[in-house]
Specification:
Blueprint: H1 9-12, H2 16-30, E1 34-39, H3 44-47, E2 52-54, H4 56-65, E3 70-74, H5 77-86, E4 92-94, H6 110-120, H7 126-129, E5 130-135, H8 140-148, E6 152-154, H9 159-169, E7 172-176, H10 179-188, E8 196-199, H11 210-215, E9 218-221, H12 233-242, E10 247-250, H13 256-261, E11 264-265, H14 268-277, E12 283-287, H15 290-301, E13 306-309, H16 325-336, H17 348-364
Parallel strand pairs: 1-2, 1-3, 3-4, 5-6, 5-7, 7-9, 8-9, 10-11, 10-12, 12-13
Helix pairs in contact: 2-16, 4-5, 5-17, 8-17
Bound molecules: (~{Z})-2-methylbut-2-enedioic acid and iron/sulfur cluster.
Length: about 375
C-alpha cells in the first residue's frame, strides 16, 4: 500500500501556538536530516524556526553547503528551485506552500525571452554582442537560458559585480525580469539613462526602434516588484521634512527616483548590516518588505535606533506570507512520517544549464 501524505486541511484549524510546539517537536525528531532556510521577508512565526536566515544569495550558498537530506525553504518558489539545483541529487528541496511564487519572476517566461532574443537578432548578433543576465527572482528555465547563451544570474547583493563581468564578455546586457534593479545598478555604474532602454515584451520588437537597440548598453525587461513600487519619492521628502537628521535606505527593486533620493541603496543583507553598524540614536527610513523592517525596528530599538517603514500603508509580500506555521507544521510532520510533500525538482537538463549560470554568479560574487 502506498502511504498517503497527511492531509493539509486539519492543519488550517491549528492556532499558531499549537503549530509552534509541533514544529519544534518535528525539528527535534528530524535532527540533522533537516535544515530550514528562512528568507528575510518571512513572517516572524515562521522565521524563528529557520536554522539559517538570509537573502537569496546567502541561502543558496547555504543550500549548496548543507549536508541535510531535507532542505525546507521558507521563501518563494524560485528560491527552492535554486536550492534543488545547487544541492546534491540525493537531497530534497521542499517549499511548504506551492502557491508561494513571486509576481515579478512571473513577468518573464522562456517563450517571451526567446522571442526577444530572436527579435534582437534582427538588429544585431546577440550571441556575440549581448550577455543575458537574469535576476535570481526568475524561473529555472530562464537561468538555463542564461547558462546556454554565455549569461549569468545576479542577486541584489552582487548585481554590480555581475554587470561588470557581463560587460567584460560582450558590449550589451539583456537584463530580466526586474527593470528597476537593472536600471539602479546601471545608474550607480554611471551608465546614462538614454543607454538603458525598456523592452516591452507585449510590443513587436520590444517597442524599440533599431537605433534605440543599437545605442543601448542595457536592455531592461519591463518587469517590477509591486511591493517595492509602493515606496514613493514623496515618502522620503515627508520623512526628511520631519527628521532632517534621519537617514534613508532603500532596496534596488524600488524606482530610480526613490533610490536617487536615498542615502544608501542595497540588498536586504546590506540594509541589515548598514543599520546594525550605524551609531546609537540614528533614525532610519527603510524601503523594503514590511516583515524585515518590523524586525529591524524591534532588534535595534534597545540601542536607541529608530527604524521607520517607508510606505504609509501596510505592504507585505503576499506570496512570502503564504508560508505560514500551519504549512510548515504539515510539511515537517509529513517528513517525520517518512513522506515528502511539496518537493521542488528541476528537470536535469534545465538544472544543469541553470547551474552553469549560477556557478558563474557564485564565482564573481564578493
Ligand atoms: O535576493 C533576495 O533575497 C531578495 C529577494 C531581496 C534581497 O535584496 O535580499
Ligand atoms: Fe517577488 Fe517582490 Fe515578493 Fe520579492 S518582494 S518575492 S520580488 S513579489
Amino acid at each position: 500500500m502506498v502511504a498517503t501524505a497527511l492531509a493539509l486541511e486539519p492543519y488550517a484549524g491549528l492556532d499558531d501556538a499549537a503549530c509552534d510546539a509541533r514544529i519544534r517537536a518535528a525539528r527535534e525528531a528530524l535532527g540533522e536530516r533537516l535544515v530550514i532556510l528562512g528568507h528575510h521577508y518571512q513572517r516572524d512565526e515562521v522565521f524563528r524556526h529557520a536554522d539559517y536566515s538570509g537573502d537569496s544569495l546567502k541561502l543558496s550558498r547555504q543550500a549548496a553547503a548543507s549536508a541535510a537530506e531535507y532542505i525546507v525553504f521558507c521563501g518563494v518558489h524560485f528560491m527552492a528551485e535554486v536550492a534543488d539545483i545547487l544541492s546534491r541529487p540525493d537531497q530534497v528541496a521542499i517549499l511548504p506552500d506551492l502557491v508561494a511564487g513571486c509576481s515579478m519572476a512571473d513577468m518573464a517566461d522562456l517563450e517571451r525571452v526567446e522571442a526577444a532574443w530572436a527579435a534582437l537578432g534582427e538588429v544585431l548578433d546577440p550571441e556575440t554582442s549581448v550577455t543575458p543576465v537574469t535576476y535570481i527572482n526568475s524561473s529555472a528555465d530562464l537561468k538555463a537560458f542564461c547558462g546556454r547563451h554565455g549569461g549569468i544570474v545576479c542577486t541584489s547583493t552582487n548585481a554590480r559585480h555581475v554587470l561588470e563581468w557581463a560587460f567584460g564578455q560582450r558590449e550589451k546586457v539583456l537584463f530580466f525580469p526586474d527593470q528597476h534593479l537593472g536600471r539602479n545598478t546601471g545608474d550607480a555604474m554611471g551608465i546614462p539613462l538614454e543607454e538603458m532602454v525598456v523592452w516591452d515584451p507585449d510590443q513587436p520588437g520590444g517597442g524599440l526602434s533599431r537605433e534605440a537597440v543599437q545605442r543601448a548598453r542595457i536592455i531592461l525587461w519591463k518587469g517590477f516588484c509591486s511591493v517595492h513600487q509602493m515606496f514613493r519619492p514623496e515618502h522620503i521628502d515627508a520623512f526628511r521634512a520631519r527628521h532632517p537628521e534621519g537617514l534613508v535606505i532603500s532596496h534596488p527593486e524600488a524606482s530610480l527616483e526613490v533610490c536617487r533620493k536615498s542615502d544608501y541603496v542595497g540588498s536586504t543583507e546590506y540594509i541589515i548590516r548598514t543599520v546594525a553598524e550605524s551609531p546609537p540614536g540614528t533614525r532610519w527610513l527603510v524601503g523594503t518588505e514590511l516583515n524585515l523592517v518590523n524586525r529591524l525596528h524591534e532588534r535595534f530599538r534597545g540601542e536607541g535606533k529608530q527604524v521607520h517603514f517607508m510606505a504609509p500603508t501596510v505592504c507585505m509580500c503576499s506570496t512570502m506570507f503564504r508560508i505560514d506555521p500551519q504549512h510548515l507544521c504539515w510539511t515537517l510532520e509529513n517528513l517525520v512520517e517518512g513522506r515528502v510533500v511539496n518537493r521542488i525538482q528541476v528537470p536535469p537538463p534545465v538544472a544543469d544549464q541553470a547551474r552553469t549560470a549560477l556557478d558563474r554568479m557564485l564565482e564573481v560574487s564578493p
